[in-house]
């Protein structure tokens, strides 16, 4: 199975994996069986793309990429990974097998693509153009691209409905969430949500849209059609990202300022627990950003951009199993299972 973007205790040293690092000589936690699973990481300071074998914890391949890559997404068939080149104007596509570059899609001047999703088509935000791009057949040399204006500043992250007919962006500069109809390309609809909304995810059943606003220290439950706010949930400090468990029961926010995750029960729209990935004193040294669930919902991966690590967290116990080394400034992630 493929888990995309789009689109997390105590610390321990995993003795069986030389690529895993821990702290304080804590007892080693038992690693899950992850044969054949790979983690792909966009390294924004290193201008590179990493492939990590999750069974061993080792980085098996790293290649140069475009400047300042942030988010990435895996193709539906698992054969390719697309990288949003935030420091440039393009989306780059690599083969997942050997990380060979197979295509480069230029989105035009000032594009600064960031959020990305690969479903029926490839959808990417173009923050500098206040738009999203819908790219059909992205592997072809002459891909069909349509630009859809959000008209909002800082259209940063994107969520796409399972039927690929609707997309939503969080627009940090405008403080809005925007709904876009990918069938009609009619006028976009936007509403103001909190202060600096950035994290976004759609529930697996498509019934609720969830947004985290980093300047408000809150998560918001929205109606995906009307964008009406149906609930507000306090989180930890600076909730940069929000990711819903594939099973659809909970979401977690990545609280950058205090190194924690807030776990939200989606049925009750309430916070039910906090997972400490690092202490508040360590948070600045790690800079926890992107979060990603394993497909079985048993593990959470949190990119720690400043320390060039990815924390692998057991969801049930909340313990950090190991820290995986990646390139400089690891940020966007995807798992191929």
TrEMBL record:
Superkingdom of the organism of origin: Bacteria
Signal peptide, first to last residue: 1-22
Pfam families the record matches: Lactonase (PF10282)
Keywords: Signal
Database matches in SUPFAM superfamilies: Nitrous oxide reductase, N-terminal domain
Keyword match Cell cycle: no
Name of protein: YncE family protein
């Amino acid at each position: 199975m493929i888990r995309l973007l789009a689109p997390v205790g105590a610390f321990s040293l995993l003795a069986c994996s030389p690529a895993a690092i821990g702290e304080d000589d804590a007892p080693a936690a038992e690693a899950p069986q992850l044969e054949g699973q790979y983690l792909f990481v966009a390294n924004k300071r290193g201008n590179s793309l990493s492939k990590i074998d999750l069974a061993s914890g080792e980085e098996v391949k790293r290649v140069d990429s475009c400047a300042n890559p942030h988010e990435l997404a895996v193709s539906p068939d698992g054969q390719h990974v697309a990288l949003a080149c935030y420091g440039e104007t393009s989306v780059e596509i690599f083969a997942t097998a050997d990380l060979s570059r197979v295509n480069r899609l230029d989105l035009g001047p000032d594009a600064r693509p960031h959020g990305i999703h690969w479903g029926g088509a490839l959808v990417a935000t173009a923050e500098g153009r206040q738009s999203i791009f819908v790219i059909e057949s992205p592997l072809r040399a002459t891909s069909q691209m349509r630009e859809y204006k959000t008209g909002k500043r800082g259209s940063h992250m994107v969520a796409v409905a399972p039927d690929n007919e609707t997309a939503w962006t969080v627009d940090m500069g405008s403080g809005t969430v925007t709904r876009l109809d990918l069938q009609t390309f009619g006028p976009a609809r936007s509403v103001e949500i909190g202060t600096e909304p950035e994290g976004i995810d759609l529930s697996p059943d498509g019934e609720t849209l969830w947004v985290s606003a980093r300047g408000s220290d809150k998560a918001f439950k929205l109606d995906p059609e009307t964008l009406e706010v149906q609930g507000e949930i306090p989180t930890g400090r600076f909730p940069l990202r929000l990711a819903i468990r594939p099973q659809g029961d909970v979401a977690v926010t990545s609280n950058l300022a205090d190194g924690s995750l807030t776990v939200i029960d989606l049925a009750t729209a309430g916070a039910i627990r906090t997972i400490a990935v690092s202490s508040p004193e360590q948070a600045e040294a790690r800079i926890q950003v992107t979060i990603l669930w394993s497909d079985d919902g048993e593990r959470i991966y949190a990119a720690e951009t400043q320390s060039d690590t990815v924390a692998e967290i057991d969801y049930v116990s909340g313990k950090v199993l190991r820290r995986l080394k990646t390139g400089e400034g690891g940020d966007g992630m995807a798992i191929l299972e």
